[in-house]
Amino acid sequence: MPTVYLLYCADGSYYTGWTSNLEKRLKVHQSGRGARYTRSRLPVRLAYAEAVSDKSAALKREYQIRRLSHQQKAAMAATYHE
């Protein structure tokens, strides 16, 4: 199932992405082979995740989250419990 996720980076920034396999994607990010943005901001940790119905919904939700302010992303992360 597609999942939109928010990573908290070592420099205090957030990275937003989507994947069809969250566990595998997190391992890739944490190993330094993920997105260029996160490679220089290791370690990263999962701050928020949200399952969506399909790829189209994932892309739309990813765009919505990317447009949020840092404070709004922090508030989302504060409500997330794995």
UniProtKB/TrEMBL annotation:
Residues 1-75 form the GIY-YIG domain. Gene3D superfamilies: GIY-YIG endonuclease. GO terms for molecular function: endonuclease activity. InterPro entries: GIY-YIG_endonuc, GIY-YIG_endonuc_sf, UPF0213_domain. CDD domains: GIY-YIG_UPF0213. Keywords: Endonuclease, Hydrolase, Nuclease. Signal peptide: none annotated. Belongs to the UPF0213 family. PANTHER family: UPF0213 PROTEIN YHBQ. This is Endonuclease. It comes from Anoxynatronum buryatiense.
